[in-house]
Design brief:
Layout: E1 4-11, H1 16-29, E2 33-40, E3 48-56, E4 69-74, H2 77-82, E5 87-96, H3 103-106, H4 116-122, E6 126-130, H5 132-139, H6 145-153, H7 161-171, H8 177-189
Parallel strand pairs: 1-4, 4-5, 5-6
Antiparallel strand pairs: 1-3, 2-3
Length: 190
């Protein structure tokens, strides 16, 4: 199997690391060689965070270069736009339409860019944008955006719902298990 590349991008504190661990566990159980690389920016200050997940028969490097990502999963709209040059032709961006103001917007030095989804689509990108935050809140916690997005991404793979649920069971504490399973299902059906 040719190596597949997934970038998970967002803002510090949104749960991108849990999302990459969930995806990594599932891929390992399916027998893939997998490499995960977590790049932390100013994550504790709400800065940009990116995680690379690469899998296939044999993966030699954990890093995804520009133009190589099969999927970009973005927890926040501006972060999706920030990383588009990494998407390969024919790739897909799965994005939460939530907007989190970066520091230049908070301080008044800049404005949050308008119409980002439309601009990405006008550039010819395959953008699957939806309100993952609303679904996470429906599941019981705004913090479940990461699992909602993994549920939505899951529609692009041939893994069964049961296999995804097993990976969730291995990745989250038992007291949050039902909430996360609900969030995943809501995302998968969105």
């Amino acid at each position: 199997m040719k190596t597949k590349n997934i970038m998970i991008v967002g803002v510090g504190g949104q749960g991108s690391l849990l999302a990459s661990k969930l995806l990594g566990r599932l891929l390992l159980t399916k027998g893939y060689d997998i490499k995960v690389s977590e790049v932390h920016g100013m994550s504790q200050r709400g800065g940009s965070v990116v995680t690379y997940v690469r899998f296939g028969d044999k993966v030699y490097s954990p890093i995804i270069d520009k133009g190589e990502a099969d999927y970009i999963v973005s927890f926040e709209l501006l972060e999706a736009a920030r990383w588009t040059e990494y998407l390969k032709p024919g790739g897909k961006i799965v994005v939460n339409t939530q907007q989190i103001n970066p520091m230049p917007v908070i301080t008044g030095a800049a404005e949050y860019p308008a119409d980002l989804t439309e601009k990405m689509q006008a550039a010819g990108l395959d953008v699957d944008a939806f309100d993952a935050l609303a679904l996470a809140e429906q599941a019981g916690s705004a913090k479940a955006v990461n699992i909602v997005l993994m549920g939505h991404l899951s529609r692009n793979f041939d893994f069964t719902l049961e296999e995804w649920m097993e990976a969730i069971e291995q990745s989250v504490p038992s007291k949050f298990l039902e909430l996360n399973k609900t969030a995943f299902t809501l995302g998968r059906n969105a």
